[in-house]
Amino acid sequence: MSVRDNIKAIEEKLPQGVSLVAVSKFHGPERILEAYSAGLRIFAESRPQEFAAKVPQLPADIEWHFIGHLQTNKLKLVLPYAKLIQSVDSFHLLEAIDSWAVANGRVVDVLLELHLGAEETKQGFSEEEIIRIVSETSSFPEMFPGIRIRGLMGMATNTDDMTVVEKDFERIEALFNRIRAFGLEGFDQLSIGMSADWPVAVRHGATMVRIGTDIFGPREY
Ligand SMILES: *Cc1c(COP(=O)(O)O)cnc(C)c1O
């Protein structure tokens, strides 16, 4: 199937109001343009160098998201071009993004990444850490003037067992709803679901799904 057909097949099943984020990592500009001409406008990358090299080659009305682990010495490659950093996974990174934003007169939208799933290597905050950050920033907005926390991101356990995936998404959905009750301004995005599990994520309140393989096929490593 072509990229266009793949997108159509996903869009037919995706409920209104859930954003489709096309994960274009490891795919070149031509493939990205195929998805663009099929109507997609939100794309996500996970490696700073690759991200910075691609952005100038592609249409300016693309909304770029960053979804990979971000080291603070790579911020300059990413923050000027990204509309949303989905993968904030440490307090240190929050502080560094805030400093960059203040120095550049910007406010950066971010999602906090919850460590979901069994994999030990996976990045992310614990639930307690996320609650603490959100409580502190709502009590003391002057703590991070350069950051707006827009919601949560998570990756489910990498398994074919959908009952495990379901439990992971239940957990992040519950945390998301708990935090929404704090009334934090702009906290309205839940980014869960990838090619293998996005229909499950949609049932658990996803407001955006991040899909690579189901759009572009296997990555061109
Ligand atoms: C690569 C990646 C995706 C997309 O994965 P697919 O299985 O190709 O859909 C989604 N989210 C993150 C954080 C990724 O790194």
Number of strands: 8
Ligand set: pyridoxal-5'-phosphate
Helical run tally: 9
Largest sheet report: 8 strands, parallel
- Rg (CA only): 17 Å
Report strand order across the widest sheet. Answer: 7-6-5-4-3-2-1-8
Helix-strand category:
alpha/beta
State the end-to-end CA separation. 20 Å
> Strand content of the residues, in percent?
15-25%
Overall 3D shape: globular
The level of helicity is 25-40%
Give the SSE string.
HEHEHEHEHEHEHEHEH
The overall pLDDT, averaged over residues, is: 95
Query: Residue ranges: pLDDT <50 for 5 or more in a row?
Result: none
Compose a concise summary of this entry.
By secondary structure, the chain is an alpha/beta fold. It is 39% helix and 19% strand. It has helices spanning 3-13, 29-37, 48-54, 75-78, 91-103, 127-139, 162-180, 198-203, 213-216, and strands at 19-23, 42-45, 63-66, 82-88, 108-114, 147-154, 189-191, 208-211.
How does this structure look, described?
With 221 residues, the chain is α/β, with parallel strands linked by helices. It has nine helices and eight strands. It has helices spanning 3-13, 29-37, 48-54, 75-78, 91-103, 127-139, 162-180, 198-203, 213-216, and strands at residues 19-23, 42-45, 63-66, 82-88, 108-114, 147-154, 189-191, 208-211. An eight-stranded parallel β-sheet has the order 7-6-5-4-3-2-1-8. β3 (63-66), α4 (75-78) and β4 form a beta-alpha-beta unit. It is globular and about 50 Å long. It binds pyridoxal-5'-phosphate (PLP). Pyridoxal-5'-phosphate binds next to β8 and α9.
